[in-house]
């Protein structure tokens, strides 16, 4: 997921070179890139980092992307959605060759994060590529063998646009305790009872946690989607202080 890069004063790390060591195509418009930075001391689930590209003529472009998974063997992953006309996302997804270098600065952000010491139930609500930082939380939960119950509501336009489709359907360790519900807005599989439509009160009531459970709620996606989901949560009785949001677009 792409974000607006933060001012330098809000970033605690310095730029460092990072070599692209792998890529996975997730959907027709989303690709996971695996980088090997010079030094990476780890990050929290939900944080992001800046990526900087420098052209031969010295022109530089910076974009901020969510980290998609816990660091492993000093490597970090970003799942990037190609933006139509985007000079950075298109180049990263399609043109940056394995073995080439970019620059990375981070990790950034300490609010929209899940810490495994928090034992409250977790409700994740994602729209489109907003799944990326939430999937990082799911993967962190799995990595530390947490027993905290998670529920994920993931809204996408069509089945072909589900990022991490295989992993969501078949977690690496079987049933890892994450209840996942896919919501389709334009085209749904024939066996889906719900049909198509934007996320609504009935969806969150049926598949989320009741407010009396006091869950930690994380909502990420396009601005309109996030605003709608957050308003529904508050209307259902969830404490606004337990609702954390990230918007893009």
From TrEMBL:
Its cofactor is FAD. It comes from the Bacteria. Keywords: 2Fe-2S, Iron, Iron-sulfur, Metal-binding. Pfam families: FAD_binding_6, NAD_binding_1. Residues 13-114 form the FAD-binding FR-type domain. SUPFAM superfamilies: Ferredoxin reductase-like, C-terminal NADP-linked domain (SSF52343), Riboflavin synthase domain-like (SSF63380). Gene3D superfamilies: Nucleotide-binding domain of ferredoxin-NADP reductase (FNR) module, Translation factors. Transmembrane segments: none annotated. PANTHER family: NADH OXIDOREDUCTASE HCR (PTHR47354), PROTEIN RFBI (PTHR47354:SF5). This is Ferredoxin reductase. It comes from Glycomyces rhizosphaerae.
């Amino acid at each position: 997921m792409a974000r607006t890069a933060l001012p330098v004063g809000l970033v605690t790390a310095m730029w460092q070179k990072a070599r692209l060591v792998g890529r996975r195509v997730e959907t027709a418009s989303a690709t996971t890139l695996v980088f090997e930075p010079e030094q990476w001391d780890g990050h929290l689930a939900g944080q992001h980092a800046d990526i900087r590209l420098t052209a031969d003529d010295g022109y530089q472009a910076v974009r901020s992307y969510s980290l998609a998974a816990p660091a492993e063997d000093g490597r970090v992953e970003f799942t990037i959605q190609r933006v139509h006309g985007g000079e950075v996302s298109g180049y990263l997804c399609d043109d940056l060759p394995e073995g080439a270098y970019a620059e990375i600065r981070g990790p950034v952000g300490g609010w929209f994060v899940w810490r495994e010491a928090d034992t409250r139930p977790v409700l994740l609500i994602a729209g489109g590529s907003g799944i990326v930082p939430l999937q990082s939380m799911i993967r962190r939960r799995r990595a530390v063998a947490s027993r905290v119950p998670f529920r994920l509501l993931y809204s996408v336009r069509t089945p072909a646009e589900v990022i991490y489709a295989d992993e969501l359907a078949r977690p690496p360790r079987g049933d890892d305790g994450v209840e996942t519900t896919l919501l389709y807005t334009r085209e749904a599989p024939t066996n889906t009872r719900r049909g198509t439509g934007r996320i609504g009160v009935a969806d969150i009531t049926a598949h989320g946690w009741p407010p009396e459970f006091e869950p930690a709620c994380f909502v990420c996606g396009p601005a309109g989607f996030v605003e709608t989901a957050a308003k529904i949560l508050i209307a259902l009785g969830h404490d606004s202080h337990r609702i954390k949001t990230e918007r893009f677009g």
